[in-house]
Amino acid sequence: MTYDIAIIGAGPAGLSAALNSKIRNKSVIIFGKDSEKLVKTKKIANYLGFKDITGSDLNENFKNSIEGFEIKRDSRKVKTIYAMGDFFAIEIENESEMLEARSVIMATGIELKKDLLNEDKFFAKGVNYCATCDAALYRGKKVVVIGYNDEAVGEANFTSEIVGSLVFVNMTGKEVSLNSGIEVIEGEIPIGFDGEKRAEKLIFKSGKEIIADGFFIEKDSSKPERLVPGIKMEGNHIQVARDLSTSIKGLFAAGDITGKPYQIMKAVGEGQVAALSAASYLSKNN
């Protein structure tokens, strides 16, 4: 099935975009899980119409707003979005088939954590972001997985069955259950990579180093320019016009990823604008 609009991100901007896209009679799929940033917020005092509401309750209200509408929810991780002219091919992590959409709205939020030193320099040169996708490239070799989220544990366990040896740098802040044979590093802070033509070692703040053949960084979000090849950026944000269109025809963006202020009301409003713009784009390109 080819969807009219695929929305990447299920936070306030994504849910708003989904609702307003569906009201315009578009077929919609939305990728992503609940916004952890919103759910963990203890108190919100500046959202119009809701006084001193918790982030968790506001998130439930947002989700309740789209109940009863035929909106496909998908919690799988989108790996890459390819602009194919009249449609977009969406690559899902660990899946062989591509999903297609006529338009895309990016509402991924923004990753405020800084990249590790030389992370960009060695991207695809020993530094990767999908262990289950690329583990086969390191069969029989030594690999390091730097895990920032719960999914990293499963990725590490899977990868350990393919590679020669695996070191897991635990940045989750939790105890982890890993396959036997996996070396776990706790309490160390990675700061960057070093090497000649490719990443050869991971360096920690303490001065500790790990030499390996490959390194996987498992965290919740990827940079937009990696997710959507060729998209124009302004610093850490996607470059958008007033109608929230991007440099790629048929692709729109909303929420924190378009720039400050990082506010819920701004995200919800931009989700609506992006949906209206996407619907208008589709009407003109039938």
UniProtKB/TrEMBL annotation:
Residues 3-271 form the FAD/NAD(P)-binding domain. Keywords: Flavoprotein, Oxidoreductase. GO terms for molecular function: oxidoreductase activity. InterPro entries: FAD/NAD-bd_sf, FAD/NAD-binding_dom, Ferredoxin-NADP_redctase_2. It comes from the Bacteria. SUPFAM superfamilies: FAD/NAD(P)-binding domain. Coiled coil: none annotated. This is Pyridine nucleotide-disulfide oxidoreductase.
